[in-house]
Automatic annotation (TrEMBL):
GO molecular function: catalytic activity
Domain Rhodanese span(s) in chain numbering: 25-127
Protein name: Rhodanese domain-containing protein
Stretches that traverse the bilayer: none
Source organism phylogeny: Eukaryota, Viridiplantae, Streptophyta, Embryophyta, Tracheophyta
InterPro entries linked to this entry: Rhodanese-like_dom, Rhodanese-like_dom_sf, STR17/STR18/HARC1-like
């Protein structure tokens, strides 16, 4: 019988579609938008319990991981919070969700299709007054 790391057994990326994400958020889950502040300000999921902490920043050389991501999340979320993570298309949020699970967050789900799918499914969005879309 081999010893298994219990942490790796629990490290399973859970992905939910936007309708399931909407239900989870409306029932009290926190929504973590990992897009850049610029993307977030152009429009985001319209929920009360929403926080924007970028996973990547974009600069002329390409994308750069936010080295303070986990620190910034831990300032506003506990490892026992129920969190739905979203981005623009579902890719960055998948990376962010995996990092959160590895860091010991227990109840984290990745929103499949991201904000683009949220908009496509005509779910409620909030746009900044000065956003140009």
């Amino acid at each position: 019988m081999s010893a298994q790391n219990p942490r790796s057994e629990n490290l399973q990326l859970v992905t939910v579609d936007v309708h399931a994400a909407n239900d989870l958020i409306r029932s009290g889950h926190r929504y973590l938008d990992v897009r850049t502040p610029e993307e977030f300000n152009r429009g985001h999921v319209d929920v009360e319990n929403c926080v924007n902490i970028p996973y990547f920043f974009f600069n002329p050389a390409g994308r750069v991981k936010n080295t303070k991501f986990l620190e910034q999340v831990s300032a506003v979320c506990s490892k026992d919070d129920h969190i739905v993570v979203g981005c623009q298309s579902g890719v960055r949020s998948g990376y962010a969700t995996t990092d959160l699970l590895k860091a010991g967050y227990k109840h984290v789900s990745n929103m499949e299709g991201g904000y683009a799918s949220w908009v496509e499914n005509e779910l409620s969005v909030k746009k900044s007054d000065d956003a140009e879309l």
